[in-house]
Amino acid sequence: MPENPSLSAGVPGEAPARMADTPSLDKIGARLEGLDALIFDMDHTLAKYKVRPIYALIYSSITEYLVEERDFPRELLGVPFDHAFAAKGVIFDTTTGDMLKFSDKGKVVQACHGRKSWLSKHEIEHKYGGGAWAHFELLRSLKKGPFIAFHTYFDVPSVCILAAMVDIRDAKGGNYDFMGDFFDALEHTFNYTAFAKQRGGFFPAITARPQDFLYRRDAVKGWLEALRLRGKRLLLVTNSHVDFSELVMQTAFGKGWRALFDG
């Protein structure tokens, strides 16, 4: 095991977006010439979030719901979010309470029980075997199994939350039957109706001070305008609801952001 184990390779940089953050039109122009349209995702692509504040907000919103609405022990609120521990690409094994990382062949190469109990190489092989993890094919085929995969920046705070919940249950000699409450907390926090109702901690905080959580993207705006001048059709796609998307895009690109896109 490394001297200072971590599931994370580091938190993305927090420097404000500069022109260097966007591709040079001259550099990629030849590759774009044969394209009639370009399609962009919104969250964490065109719209750049301030990662540390957004992680902290998600973490506090979910933990407060678990304590206030699902009677989880209040000590959960005293567990700080650990940027070095959390990462994308982590799998939570709901039966063992372990956080797992894999090789490309599905072998468990790193495991932590709760937040602090790192398994040695010998312990990993004894617990999970020397080959592919038993549920790796389910994971690769995107089928449901006794695990949760953390793929996006919005997922990352949940790595720390679930690890803390495991530690609390272990200390009390309980099991890990909290997944229903955890999913309720996610639904309460991120359901699209929560923005309109200004419910929970996540959407109200962003609505009140969006500049605390999102960067202005003036350089990217100029790049998009230049693409349009070249005759390219630009389309925006997102799985965020329309009202939240309006707030995000206005904060990043200004009130006239719709003029950047077709349709």
Q: Any chance you could write out the topology, listing elements then pairs?
A:
Layout: H1 25-32, E1 37-41, H2 51-70, E2 90-93, E3 98-102, E4 108-113, E5 117-118, H3 121-128, H4 136-140, E6 147-150, H5 156-171, H6 179-190, H7 193-197, H8 202-208, H9 218-229, E7 233-237, H10 242-253
Parallel strand pairs: 1-7
Antiparallel strand pairs: 2-3, 2-6, 3-4, 4-5
Helix pairs in contact: 2-5, 2-6
TL;DR of this structure?
With 263 residues, this protein is an alpha+beta fold. The protein has ten helices and seven strands.
What would your notes on this structure say?
The protein starts with 24 loop residues before the first helix and ends in a 10-residue tail after the last helix. It has helices at 25-32, 51-70, 121-128, 136-140, 156-171, 179-190, 193-197, 202-208, 218-229, 242-253; strands spanning 37-41, 90-93, 98-102, 108-113, 117-118, 147-150, 233-237. The protein has a five-stranded antiparallel beta sheet. With 263 residues, it is α+β, with helices and mostly antiparallel strands. Helix 2 (51-70) runs parallel beside helix 5. It has ten helices and seven strands.
